[in-house]
Amino acid sequence: MDRTPRRIPAATVARLPEYLRVLVGLASDRIATVSSDRLAELAGVNGAKVRKDLSYLGTYGTRGVGYDVDFLLFQMREALGLTQDWPVVVVGAGNLGRALANYGGFGERGFPVAAIVDSDPAKVGTEIGGTIVRPVADLAGIVAEHHHVIGVIATPGHVAQAVADALVVAGVQAILNFAPALVSVPPHISLRKVDLALELQVLSFYQSHRETRAVG
Amino acid sequence: MDRTPRRIPAATVARLPEYLRVLVGLASDRIATVSSDRLAELAGVNGAKVRKDLSYLGTYGTRGVGYDVDFLLFQMREALGLTQDWPVVVVGAGNLGRALANYGGFGERGFPVAAIVDSDPAKVGTEIGGTIVRPVADLAGIVAEHHHVIGVIATPGHVAQAVADALVVAGVQAILNFAPALVSVPPHISLRKVDLALELQVLSFYQSHRETRAVG
DNA sequence: GACTGTGAAGTAGTTCACAGCT
DNA sequence: AGCTGTGAACTACTTCACAGTC
Fold this sequence. Notes:
The structure is a homodimer.
Chain A: H1 10-28, E1 33-34, H2 36-43, H3 47-56, E2 67-68, H4 69-80, E3 88-91, H5 95-102, H6 105-108, E4 113-118, E5 127-128, E6 131-135, H7 139-145, E7 150-153, H8 160-170, E8 174-177, E9 190-193, H9 198-208
Parallel strand pairs in A: 3-4, 3-7, 4-6, 7-8, 8-9
Antiparallel strand pairs in A: 1-2, 5-6
Chain A binds a DNA duplex through α1 and α3.
């Protein structure tokens, strides 16, 4: 009865989506319970880490038995805030933006593409993956139409900061930046970045140094 | 004169591509020297971290002056192994694979798309971003045609392990996995993963918990 | 007997703060 | 005076190891 809401370490938060993926698989295989060691094996980590991570969620398994898959799945979705959808607005209808909008993986995982916007009038009105490209001026309207929209920056690096500023003005609270550029936002806005080439560069480093550094 | 080749921490390696990006920008602006604090500001970190990171490379700046941009740029490319190109073979010509192959950002940064392969005969022979899709059976040939090819897995999760195995058999030494699945490889193979939806899930977590956790 | 939950120990990464060079 | 390079202090994260529960 001690749902201690301890502060969850960032490293743990980053692993929760992995556990979620594993649990979805177990549930669809009709597996009822799972031990920390088995979950760890499927997620590519170790049992102690799983137990400590889950303990931060206030999730209790059963000693001698393990964790109830359905209950843990529910709790994981709850913890990650995935009991609701988070519509995404993609800014930039170039290669990367089209790619992300066409890639079905976002919608499947609770992040439907609500809109795509682009500053190029030639692109406005074209269709990408069933969504019509809208002008950047529509941003505020798009944010107002939906609840808690996440902004995705898929533009060249040199306009990334301007796009981020526009997203913030439009009322977006969370931004995912795919552009290879540093972006800064007011402290109350959540910001994360993904650099598609960065991991290739890291691989290049380890190949050049003839050391293997495996990462799940 | 003490080019100590200390082991470079993984956290430092992950930041080198950021420094590289900043240095490329400074060099194109014809800026000759940069201090650790300025470099830190442009990379979104702090000065002490920059100095410590650069010290692992055995890179020496000049006290009272800073770092020579061109020299540091050269060293950074050298450290990352980017004095050569690393051709990439994309496995999977679905939405994600087409996206990655069309996305010019890889080629620009030294990772040209050498080939795209797919197991679907209907896709083989079609063109994506100037490259003809080849059958999976061509993998070994593609690896032999080029030096040090990096394999990129852009398939659905349920075939990711089989693709990884095929890449290893074909002689690939480094793999970047975009599929949302755990993949394991022999210890001498470098493996990294990128999960496009994971960062959205992390944003969802922080939004739900109404805490802002900014990340450069 | 099996397996969780967690303090304690160990390891990695960050930041401080300042000596030392230009 | 300005700025690097780095031990030392600190903080975050991981792993161990075992008491507690089923």
